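DATA SHEET
Item: assembly model
Revision: 1
Owner: S.N.
Input lines:
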Amino acid sequence: MSEKPKVGFYWCASCGGCEESVVDLAEGILDVVKAVDIVFWPVAMDFKRKDVEAMPDGAILATLLNGAVRSGEQEEMVRLLRRKSKLLIAYGSCAHTGGIPGLANQFSREEILKFVYQESPSTANEKNTRPQTRFAEEGRETHLPELHQVVRSLDQVVEVDYYLPGCPPTPNLLKNALGVLLSGKLPPKGAVLAPETALCNECPRKDSKPQDVAFKEFKRPHLARIETDKCILAQGFMCMGPATRAGCGAQCVQGNMPCTGCFGATSRVRDQGAKMLSSVCSNIDPKEEPEIDKVLEGIPDPVGTFYRYGLARSLLRRKVSTV
Amino acid sequence: MERQIRYQREARPAWGAEIAKLPGCERLYSCIQCGTCSGTCPMSLYMDYTPRRVIALIREGFYKDALSCRTIWLCASCYSCSSRCPQDIKVTDIMYALKREAIKRKVYPSRFPTPVLAREFYRLVKMFGRNSEFLLVFLLTLKTNPLGFLTMARTGIALLLTGRLSPKVEMIRDAARLRKALEPKEVA
Amino acid sequence: MSKPVEEIRIGVYVCHCGTNIAGMVDVKNVADFASRLPGVTVSREYKYMCSDPGQELIRQDIKEHRLNRIVVASCSPLLHEETFRAATAKGGLNPFFFHLVNIREHDSWVHENRQDATAKANALVHAAVERVRSHKALTKKQVPVNPAVLVVGGGIAGIHAALTLANAGKKVYLVEREPTIGGHMAKFDKTFPTLDCAACILTPKMSSVKSHKNITLWSYSEVSRIEGYVGNFEVTVRRQPRYVREDLCVGCMECIDACVFKEAKFPNEFDEGLGKRKPIYVPFPQATPKVAVIDPDRCLNVKTGKCKKSCVASCDRGAIDFTQKPEDRQIKVGAVVVATGFKAFDAKRSPQYGYGVYPNVYTSLEVERLVNASGPTSGEVVLRDGRHPKTVGIIHCVGSREEHTNRWCSRVCCMYSLKLAHLVKEHSGAEVFNFYIDMRTPGKSFEEFYQKLLKEGVHFVRGKVAEVNDWVLDPSEQGKLVIRVEDTLLGTVRRIPVDMVVLGVGLEPHADAQEVRRLFNISCGTEGFFLERHPKLAPVNTFTDGIFLAGCCQGPKDIPDTVAQAGAAAAEALALIDSGHVELEPNTAYIVEEECSGCKSCVPLCPYKAISYVEDKKKAVINEALCKGCGTCVGACPSSSIKQNLFEDEQVFSEIRGVLADV
Amino acid sequence: MAGAMLNLIMENQTSTNGTASGFEPRIVAFFCNWCTYTAADLAGVSRLKYAANVRVVRVMCSGRVDPQFILDAFAKGADGVLIGGCHPGDCHYIEGNYKLLRRVRLLHRMLRDMGIEDDRFRLEWISAAEGEKVKTVINDMVEKVRKLGPLQLPQRFRDGDKELEGEQLKAEAAHV
């Protein structure tokens, strides 16, 4: 019984920021190490896949898995870790809702490969070589994982027990989550380990938002100046705060940037983008179609704006023509 | 004496529905038999059936009467009836539809000038690509009222002498192509 | 686990509605389909679900099978939702555990393929079965009703409704736009088919309105704003200045004699412009209120400020007051009867009849004044050129039954044209021709009246007149107006010369009917008449509870029908206010406090200002009493923290799931 | 293995059947209680005949129509979504329809970006008196969607996830 609970970390389609956030626990990580045994963490420790395969099923108490599932290899690893872990935790936006990689679901695999290996301005590839899943030379055969047609959130591939949202999740959130897991007082399965209100609830600029917002234009942060003491949304910048789960402490807003929605929606919402769209559009000032459209010109890319992190797990999931 | 009663076996109500499907005849069944068309019509003076009655004949399927009456040929296409009709029925278009039907079935009053005029006009245009008034008058008179040559001769000669009627037949370039182009339509 | 999850036991009832539904939808198939859906305990089909035995079936099954959700597939919820809610409640369930599926108006009546219609019914029933699972027990909110009633329009409809309500002891505000009440009926000479004098039967009612202690009469006034909801309307009435104080004027008319205009030179509206009046006038002798009024467009003093104001000097009561300004009055009422009447068709829109071109072409309303003993000619039928007509043509259906003008039959023209034929003949001895398309005399004693006219020797020509002109084709037509018409009975076109033409103009909605409709939040039919809630079962109700219709604003009708409808509207208003309270649908929205982030997005969305932001809690809250239940804030809440009873997200999503389940 | 092949063939068949001329579009409609739902009732009372492809979900006001409803309907298999509300200026709740209109303007663009054609999503103002318009709008929309062919998102989702099922089989085989 004295044996410490085992914990694993793994990294699929993501930028690595989530791994970084674990390290961001700083000295807090020592408490973690004190409490648990890290049995698998490819980015930081030298465990191999075969070590995991050798463990009995369910041997790991919890695996915190970040990144979306984009390739055959990732799918394989995800399934393996699912088997070996009692609790599988989707860690960060990509695992939770598909994240930034999920935006690729606006294009088919073929379009993506074509662009990356042929059409991108920086590509020099005269023979139009494409990566192959199998390659044999001098009697040796090499296998490469196949790119999936679409990007998936973790729970679109395997069952997920809990979610830790964020791009990346904040160290506080991780600390609290680990505390909860180790305490044994587990929340209901499928819970998102963050508050159930939207971000405005903890936004330092909440009081500055007027009660009669009526949008006459939408501005973009790189093209206009954001005032530092007023509600960013009320200034006409698309701040996803009202449709995004709280828990981050409104860090972006504190850095004078609008919320981009990485925590996903509250659990009552089925489609974060649709709800945000509904809310801001309802508050547009003009009533006539041409004027409405003019205001909406300030949102040139609705999918990128409202689904920056959530496209893969949105109701439509992907562009219709991609599969 | 001619019997005036109409037996139902002589009617083909389905024919009325057929006519109602033709372009311009869609509102045939909206007619409320008010008689505005007849009251408006400058030609109703000479008609055997008023336009209102023609519509009633169509709706009830009395195709023989509707197709052989003088009314449809007397219609001068002034469109007064169509503009006044409270039910927005295009009475003029219906008259045209009946004329086409009558020509197709060859059941118009013999020697009645209007259909002959239409046919000869078409033939001339098809042949030369242009109308020739001279030939048209000649053919029309020949086929409808040969005696007319006698009564109309003076006027005709006067017109010829004053240059108001030219015996010259003008032709377009490549009239053969036009003829060919018009062929398939004849088949249809 | 504090509370055990209740097992869902659904009862589904598919109505045949005789053959209305069963004729196109295979109801047995629908009931069988429903019986296989999860959670469905009982599934039945029945001939008439809305009948007593049908409702009893529901009650029985709730008891026997311990049902806790009810789905009825029958007709529109606008018709029978309440019926089945009540039946559900009788069985001991909360009435809101019920959902109605519309497989009649939205299915069997509009489709032609039995298989498709049945598939659609199955999908709709499936949706309801999915939906009722998440239904909740709700209670209707009761609010007290203000017992006063507003009647808008002082024609015979408004007068009758106001008197009925006032006699029942209710406070009534009667608002009329013109300076006097009486409406069109006051202008008529005799009424068909009894030929009793319109004024004799109307003016006593007008004076009772004036003297009734329960009626506040505001003429020369218009409703400018109405807010609130059934039982509790707040109304603003704008009273135009008549420059004569109603409380002081006794109607002695001395001011009129004293006016600087010695001659009456302005067309009198009441006489359809055939008579003349001065800038200060009383519209007609029995006008109610009998108070002079000053026409601001004609009065020198109002227009230029330069006048001797001899009228002011002439009034020893000092009733004339040029300082009057438009005045807004606020009132609170529980119900509104809209009786704004009609407008006569403008005969100039049918130019073929020469109205406005030939002076001897008259409209029927003008002839009403012409044959009226108190009219401009004291009842003598004299033409505008002073001649007495020897032949008169009366044209029916002017501006009725026409695609270009109005499509509807105006319903009263045949009868009033017959009446005018009788009166004109009686007053002038002229030969009268009536030109009609179809003779429509379906009322009580109407056909008898037609028979009487036939016997009186009036000519009847069946045919719609094509045109009226003064082109002479025959010496007999010299100096006459010629009516060109096909006599459809003879089958020939006729030319009939006459001295006078009377146009039987139709009835149409007022030009501002659309604005009035918006003001009261009611609907118009395609013709522009106000739309009743149901053509048969709710003929005086509108889609807005508490607003009732009476008279020709709802559609053309004659005086008896108008009075009957006004009585019905008054009775509906009475039934509403006598109950003392109204029950409001519980479909209001509410904010779950712990879920709300206080983003304030919803606050500006509510047109009723029901949403407010509570500063100390930093959350938004909905005032249920102000919420009308549209759900706009619910659709817009970015964190789904606002819910709408009866239309919760889960309920709508499950309906969507249900209708698409077979895809 | 043969079973899987057979399945594949069968599924391919059903999906091609779907695109054949027998395709009957499924359209989910959201009608406001006061105008369009009533107009549809009127169409019924007037016995107008129209295509049976539309299933109506009643809401009190078109302003209640949450864009989630529209996306969800597509995701659950609708080939088209129709919304009916009161004419501008006529909303029973003053201006709920304007709020919807603003959402719809952007939603149209977003759906286009997601590959859903304009004709699959339609907003119409239909007053309580316009029973005839219910008929023409529905018939017209059904025709247009029929021309576009099936959207079939659930099937596309299933087809797309087949790349996962293969992995699943392999994983299970290895495990055993």
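QC remark: Chain B is about 60% helix and 0% strand.
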